[in-house]
UniProtKB/TrEMBL annotation, chain A:
Record gene name: leuC
EC number of this enzyme: 4.2.1.33
SUPFAM superfamilies, per database record: Aconitase iron-sulfur domain
Protein name: 3-isopropylmalate dehydratase large subunit
Self-association and partners: Heterodimer of LeuC and LeuD.
UniProtKB/TrEMBL annotation, chain B:
Protein name: 3-isopropylmalate dehydratase
Keywords: Amino-acid biosynthesis, Branched-chain amino acid biosynthesis, Leucine biosynthesis, Lyase
Domain annotation Aconitase A/isopropylmalate dehydratase small subunit swivel: ranges: 22-126
Region span, Disordered: 1-22
Function per UniProt: Catalyzes the isomerization between 2-isopropylmalate and 3-isopropylmalate, via the formation of 2-isopropylmaleate.
Organism: Natrarchaeobius chitinivorans
Entries under PANTHER family matching the protein: 3-ISOPROPYLMALATE DEHYDRATASE SMALL SUBUNIT, 3-ISOPROPYLMALATE DEHYDRATASE SMALL SUBUNIT 2-RELATED-RELATED
Biological-process GO terms, alphabetical: L-leucine biosynthetic process
Spans through the membrane: none
Pathway assignment: Amino-acid biosynthesis; L-leucine biosynthesis; L-leucine from 3-methyl-2-oxobutanoate: step 2/4
Stored InterPro entries: 3-IsopropMal_deHydase_ssu, Aconitase/3IPM_dehydase_swvl, AconitaseA/IPMdHydase_ssu_swvl, IPMI_Swivel, LeuD
SUPFAM superfamilies the UniProt entry points to: LeuD/IlvD-like (SSF52016)
């Protein structure tokens, strides 16, 4: 049993009572909602004649279905318009703040919460979206929930939940050129497996994590769920506080910053905290990681060979065989040179300013390959605006990328941005499941934003470090 | 239904014939592709369960257990490891439930998926991989054969034998005691919830509504 970790402390501070099931009733400090998983919950509330208990602790945005090209209303697609209208009505009725596209604050729910200072250390944060783990980057206890649980949170401000074990993942050393937070988390999932985190919360620690900015920490916490862990977090530190100080909430309420800081410090894991498991990773050894298969755990370093299914543990063989057939890759090959039709730079994993900056640095002065359709979808309207001001939009457009409005877009193909037929996509998103990007024959290769940029230029998966070397010569 | 009292049935057992869905890491995008989630209710999701594995481009049937006549009345799905991994979409268990599934037996389940099943009163019971494969083989050979899941005793009975399975402790209690729908239960603690909100340093007094009349 873990003791003295951030997880234990935040849990204890939010535990209301133990329920007859043995689960704890946890107070929810921030409930984020969006258009896909909340309408049914509001419907259940109406059926039961219940109201939203804590509207002031609830915040809405629209991200999954929002078009990233033409956003004029009504949306071209009826279903999207219906979902948007339903959300508008629900938040208006309940008095919930809504970062809608006319506000300039709209974006992917896991991008806007941190931007606005809604996401804070020591909060419990839930959302009907599995990538809610992202907010753990700030030392919050954040996890995804289903629609019936959204109903519970709306109606009561609390959630029935079972306490989990804590695994500390210590990443020491320095990340090399072309290697990013994304590669760290892909490596973790590859080593521990897509189900390795079931029953655990991941605490990311070590010098390589401490050296990361908030965006990198968010990329890592974001994909905790791909490793089976429902939540992941990083202890808050000066990097966290610097970010928070710049957000709307603390700009508007500067006194709150000093008032809350002792709380944030108090919930950090103790030096002598006890963990249920500890795993160490050497950051110096990492290279850019790409996936060869159809689960996020099927990754390899860009110079490594695709494994033969027979060499894998027995329970992985069948999945690997099917994945290799779908992706049309052969054991013994590397992913370097895998032909790409589409590149997608976006998603709650990698669509923040530093992600776009690093990709733009690779793109600048180069051209997108003739056979590639290349998309950049900023994570939020604020990222979009900042990137436009900084000239990144021009860099991308001059190179032949399409520059879009903010949303989830081709990460999950719920709007018009979808793969067609058996197109292969180099993607900075988080899931390479069959059908994920909108076409059941589509092929997704997950990688970091610089690698996506490199793939757009080369028309194939390529080692970004080769490109940068050429550039420096 | 009106009023916030909802009748929550006790689920101490589930039974019916089985349907085997083989493969590890079957994700929620396979169970219900995202394009079918552009809806504001869960009604009618059943026909889209496993859609891309059941139908080709021309909507012609592909080879899949859910397309087989012999499994049409099945209500117990037998799956392998990490079933339901991926997104938090409750649309996944909702689609299975609306197709006719009342219970799942598998090697392991992704956490959010299992939690979503529980919120619908659907047991997700587990056993080791060998046991699961034997059961899947038996279901193939006995598509009409009855499988009985005793949630309370943590056993599964089929083909004249009873095997031990595992039911997560909180899940077992919630199902057996009929407290798997937690809304009313948690709402009854509203006073304590308020107190907790007042204690938390980051929750402002103006964010805590006045107690209901």
């Amino acid at each position: 049993m873990s003791e003295g970790t951030l997880y234990d402390k935040v849990w204890d501070r939010h535990k209301v009572t133990e329920l007859p099931t043995g689960q704890d009733q946890l107070f929810v400090g921030l409930h984020l909602i969006h258009e896909v998983t909340s309408p049914q919950a509001f419907g259940m509330l109406r059926e039961r004649d219940l109201e939203v208990a804590y509207p002031e602790l609830t915040h809405a945005t629209v991200d999954h279905i929002v078009p990233t090209a033409d956003q004029s209303r009504p949306y071209e697609e009826d279903a999207a318009e219906e979902m948007m209208s339903e959300l508008e009505e629900n938040v208006r009725e309940a008095g919930i703040d809504f970062s809608d596209p006319t506000s300039g604050d709209q974006g992917i729910v896991h991008v806007i919460g941190p931007e606005q200072g809604l996401t804070q250390p020591g909060k419990t944060i839930v959302c009907g979206d599995s990538h809610t783990s992202t907010h753990g980057a700030f030392g919050a206890l954040a996890f995804g929930i289903g629609t019936s649980q959204i109903r519970d949170v709306l109606a009561t401000g609390t959630l029935a939940f079972e306490k989990q074990k804590v695994r500390k993942i210590e990443v020491d050393g320095e990340l090399g050129e072309g290697v990013e937070a994304k590669d760290v988390i892909l490596e973790i999932i590859r080593r521990l497996g897509t189900e390795g985190g079931v029953g655990y919360v991941y605490e990311y620690a070590g010098s390589a994590i401490e050296d990361l900015g908030m965006e990198g920490r968010m990329s890592i916490c974001n994909m905790s769920i791909e490793g089976g862990a429902r939540a992941g977090y990083v202890n808050p530190d000066e990097t966290t506080y610097e970010w928070l100080e710049e957000t709307d909430y603390f700009q508007e309420n500067p006194e709150k910053f000093d008032e809350l800081k002792p709380y944030w410090e108090s919930i950090r894991s103790d030096d002598d905290a006890a963990y249920d498991d500890v795993v160490t990773i050497d950051a110096d050894e990492l290279e850019p990681v790409v996936t060869w298969g159809t689960t996020p755990g099927q990754g390899i370093g860009i110079t490594e060979e695709i494994p033969a299914p027979d060499e894998l543990p027995e329970d992985k063989r069948d999945t690997a065989r099917r994945a290799q057939e779908h992706m049309r890759v052969e054991p013994g090959e590397t992913m370097d040179g895998y032909e790409i039709d589409v590149t997608f730079l976006g998603s709650c994993t990698n669509a923040r300013m530093p992600d776009l900056r690093r990709a733009a640095a690779i793109v600048e002065g180069r051209q997108v390959h003739d056979d590639v359709r290349a998309l950049v979808v900023p994570g939020s309207q604020r990222v979009q605006e900042a990137a436009e001001e900084e000239g990144l939009k021009d860099v991308f457009e001059e190179a032949g990328f399409e520059w879009r409005n903010a949303g989830c877009s081709m990460c999950l193909g719920m709007n018009e941005d979808q793969l067609e037929g058996d197109e292969a996509c180099a993607s900075s998103s988080n899931r390479n499941f069959v059908g994920r990007q909108g076409s059941k024959d589509g092929r997704t290769v997950l990688m970091n934003p610089q690698m996506v940029a490199a793939a757009a230029i080369a028309g194939e998966v390529t080692d970004v470090r080769d490109l940068t070397e050429v550039q420096t010569v | 239904m009106s009023g916030n009292e909802v009748d929550i049935p006790e689920v101490d057992s589930a039974s019916g014939s089985g349907i085997p869905i083989r493969g590890n890491d079957i994700d929620t995008d396979q169970i219900i592709p995202a394009r079918f989630m552009k809806v504001v209710t869960f009604d009618g999701l059943g026909e889209f369960a496993f859609f891309d594995l059941r139908f080709d481009e021309n909507d012609d049937l592909k080879e899949h257990p859910m397309n087989e006549e012999r499994f049409q009345d099945s209500s117990v799905m037998v799956v392998n490891s990490n079933f339901g991994c991926g997104s938090s979409r409750e649309h996944a268990p909702q689609a299975l439930m609306r197709w006719g599934i009342d219970a799942l037996i598998g090697e392991s389940f992704a956490e959010i998926f299992a939690g979503n099943c529980l919120a619908l009163g659907i047991p997700t019971v587990t056993a080791d991989s060998e046991t699961i494969e034997e059961l899947q083989d038996w279901v193939e050979a006995n598509p009409d054969g009855e499988i009985e899941i005793d949630v309370e005793a943590e056993t599964v009975t089929y083909g004249g034998q009873t095997i031990d399975v595992t039911v997560d402790e909180a899940q077992r209690k919630a199902l057996v005691e009929g407290v798997w729908d937690t809304t009313a239960l948690m709402k009854s603690n509203a006073g304590e919830v308020r107190k907790k909100a007042q204690e938390l340093p980051y929750v402002g007094d103006d964010q805590i509504p006045d107690p209901a009349d």
